[in-house]
Amino acid sequence: MAAGRLFCTEGYGSTSTYAIARAAGISQATMYHYFAGKHEILLALLLETVRPSVEYAEQLAASPEPPTDRLRKLVAYDARLLASGEENLGSLYLLPELGDERFAPFHAERQRLFETYRELVAACQGSSLEDAHPAASLVLGLVESLILRRRNEPHMLEDDIATRIADAALRIVQA
Amino acid sequence: MAAGRLFCTEGYGSTSTYAIARAAGISQATMYHYFAGKHEILLALLLETVRPSVEYAEQLAASPEPPTDRLRKLVAYDARLLASGEENLGSLYLLPELGDERFAPFHAERQRLFETYRELVAACQGSSLEDAHPAASLVLGLVESLILRRRNEPHMLEDDIATRIADAALRIVQA
DNA sequence: GTCTATAGATAGATAGAC
DNA sequence: GTCTATCTATCTATAGAC
User: Fold this and answer.
1) A129 touches strand D (CB under 7 A)
2) How far apart are CA A71 and CA A57, in angstroms?
3) Any atom of strand D under 7 A from CB of B32?
4) Angle subtended by helix axes A38-61 and A67-83, to nearest 10
5) Is the entire prediction scored with pTM above 0.85?
6) Predicted local distance difference test score (pLDDT) of residue A175
């Protein structure tokens, strides 16, 4: 969590292993007993952060509820996750360093999440998966815009922000 | 531009002044003849990137057109800017290092942009500036979601993506 | 205005005692 | 499992020749 806080606020390349260790209350060398390097810490944080969403999404995809209800639930769930927690861990998704191939396992998980969004949007629109792609991107983008908003104005988030985002998402999909 | 490319793809803290200079075809020391440090390069890139949007927005704010037309134009303009250019320079906005006070001039410019969005949304909704804040955040978030989308799937952007985003934005505002 | 050379600090990672 | 000590590499920035 010490690393998560620093990666989100200072950046990955700008955070030294010494700074992480100091924030965690251990020596810099001790860190290497648990992680082979800085990249393994970030990967662990990324997977921990995205997995609850993927699990919820795939469980929801198998539910018999109407697709609009399921999409609303998924959007609201992800928005609440991004808005909660002491740190704005969603901003780990914004790090340019994620292009490194070492973080491919995270991208695979996030791709699974997107696929579920796309299936739900297709079901809502009665369209093919291909045709649902643009709207699904807009919806996921709307959800993840909460990351930047939380960074830029952390004290101005409405209590009902997850509901607001879900409303907006459904209005986009019901074109 | 060499620095812009590297900051966007590798990150700010992960990009060395040596790497920038090499990409620009000069020596690392020569860089210091033009910039006092790496931060000044990033600041120059940020201001160059955001200023066209601010200027267009403030010019549009003084136009006699109906507010919904103006909001649509502004959203489409910003989306086209973010989607264009060889590099995805909008992703400079996502760097965690922007929290450093040296980049305050950029945040001031972006705040001016947001204020114009808020005024237009308020005019569209016939509401106060305070009440327009949440919707304006959603709209700007929708526009800027293009940054992440361009990073994650650069070859899957629709030709009419700016129009799509403008449509979605108006649907959110016209609640 | 551009370069080479280099200072001085800090980085990630390892060795080995306890 | 945690530490101190340290290696080697790399970093930002400066000095000074041309």
Assistant:
1) no
2) 9
3) yes
4) 150
5) yes
6) 77
